[in-house]
Amino acid sequence: MKQSLQLRLGQHLTMTPQLQQAIRLLQLSTLELQAEVEQVLESNLMLERAEDEGESGADAGASPAEASAGAAEAAGPAERGEASAEEPDDDGLAQEPDLTMEGGDIPEELPVDSAWEDVYDGTAGHTGSADGEAVEFDQLRGREVTLRDHLQWQLLLTPLSETDRAVATAIIDAIDEDGYLRASLEEIRDSMGGEPPVGLDEVEAVLHRVQAFDPPGIAARDLRECLLIQLRQLDPRTCWRAEAIDLVSDHLGLLAGRDFAQLSRRMRLDRAALQEVLRLVQGLSPRPGGKLPASEPEFIVPDVFVRKHKGTWLVELNADALPRLRINPYYASLVRRADTSADNTTLKAHLQEARWFMKSLQSRSETLLRVASTIVERQRGFLEHGDEAMKPMVLHDVAEVLGMHESTISRVTTRKYMHTPRGIFELKYFFSSHLPTDSGSGCSSTAIRALIRRLVAAENPQKPLSDNRIASLLSKEGIQVARRTVAKYREGMAIPPSSERKRLA
Questions:
Q1: 146 three-state secondary structure
Q2: Percent of residues in the chain assigned helix, strand, coil, to nearest 5
Q3: Within its chain, how far is the Cα of 176 from the centroid?
Q4: How many helices and strands (H and E) does the chain possess?
Q5: Which of 37, 253, 418, 459 makes an SS bond possible with 304, Cβ 3.0 to 4.6 Å?
Q6: DSSP H/E element including 325
Q7: What is the band of 480 on the pLDDT scale with cuts at 50, 70, 90?
Q8: How much is the pLDDT for 207?
């Protein structure tokens, strides 16, 4: 075999640690970024928070928060901040803090037999418990009250025997998050054990006591009982209360089927009276346990603020959510270029990592600002007129304008939020597919959802619009959409079908 020499030209992308860090920071949410910054501050001695008070412009400019004013303006101060860390003072020593204290808070001489705690009360600056132990701040926050906690608190205020209290506890333990009792009376009795055994009549009597707790309708075994409990707890003088009890007791099936004509005949009520009874029943809660929050509320910190000033939409980064960091000048002054010792090598590594991290933060802020500005420019109609004016837009459209890859745009827009005069929206909200129109321009799926919502809100409650009718009305406006698409959008907005939206008037 004859050997030959061939030359091949190719390209490949090397993911450096710096690039990997920048990509990872880019896709973090604001809360995750704050946690990441805290971790870096603990592990890297070169980094510290840049306080607003008592700082020079060079130190304050090293923060990526300045990117909200523009990338060009932020570059200069950042470079000056790095230069100050690179070229420390010749002495390399920081000024020793003044440890003297003014005032007479601490005596000059302490008694021989005394301890520091006898003269200076160190617990004055924090909150402590009754036994003197310090209480963490997190413990002072109000713990989320669950449905079980709420019921147990009421049980403690109810005078019951020990046996009845144990039965009530078993009943409360068998209540689900919706407020319904999912265990039978026999199962509750068998779970008690003990001698003598508890009778079913005693369990049922305790159940009635628990059903009188707040929220109304709690511990019901089915929907009918839940509604009846709420109706019976109403003032007896409430209008149409007796008719509502009769409807729920004997005609709940007709109400579920929306057979109002048959319901009117069975109850011997005219349309106006039946409407009042239905209004009373519809005001009840089918899920009494849902009144209490099931989990801790999730807070959203907007990354971008959008406001209108003199007819122009301005885009600004949330400076309060951006970390303000700088290089510690004292530790940076300890670095010697010609020193190859282990300590100096460690300091150099920390300094380089700190600069990489700050550069990645600034790059993240600049990229987020550019993407948000492009979104606002293309979706100005939404900001002016609402969802119906939303234009179709995909990741490729923004990537083409900014000269970035679609994956970068996807990372930037994931779990990032924009505060607008119309509310707070995730950046992903402004991206949507398009459907064809008669004009050939295309219509955003978000705009179609808004149109469906408007049509449903304006429909006749006695004759609600079907999915076919909605598709026909959209077609008259030049939007070609299938019935299945209308059904998918309607279900996504939690709008029930036409059979369940039917009302008397």
A1: coil
A2: 50, 10, 40
A3: 25
A4: 23, 8
A5: 418
A6: strand 325-327
A7: confident
A8: 93
Alpha-carbon distance of 38 to 32, in angstroms, equals 10
The string of DSSP letters for 65-82 reads: GGGGG-HHHHHHHHHHHH
pLDDT tens sequence across 134-190: 444 444 444 567 888 889 999 999 999 988 999 999 999 999 888 999 899 888 888
Consecutive H or E run containing 327: strand 325-327
Tell which residue, 282, 322, 252, 267, has the closest CA to residue 67: 322
Three-state DSSP string of 279-321: HHHHCCCCCHHHHCCCCCCCCCCCCEEEEEECCEEEEEECHHH
Q: Are the beta carbons of 417 and 300 closer than 8 angstroms?
A: yes
Q: Which two tokens stand for residue 9?
A: 């030209």
Nearest alpha-carbon partner for 267 in 232, 302, 242: 242
Largest CA distance in the chain: 107
Per the prediction, the chain carries an average pLDDT of 79
All residues at 6 or more sequence positions from 160 whose CB lies less than 8 Å from its CB, including other chains: 168, 206, 209
Query: What residues contact 378, with CB distance under 8 A and at least 6 apart?
Result: 391, 393, 397, 398, 430
Distance, in Å, from the CA atom of 451 to the CA atom of 46, rounded to the nearest integer, reads: 55
Dig out the tokens for 422 from the structure: 């119309």
Place of tokens 């698409």: 485
d(Cα 395, Cα 397) in Å, to the nearest integer? 5
User: Over pLDDT 70: what percentage of the chain?
Assistant: 77
* Residue 102 confidence (pLDDT) above 80: no
Q: Per-residue pLDDT tens for 13-33?
A: 666 777 888 888 888 888 888
Q: Which domains does the chain have, with CATH numbers?
A: 147-291 (no CATH), 434-492 (1.10.10.60)
Rounded average pLDDT over 329-337: 88
Strand partners, 309: 312
Is the pTM for the entire model greater than 0.70? no
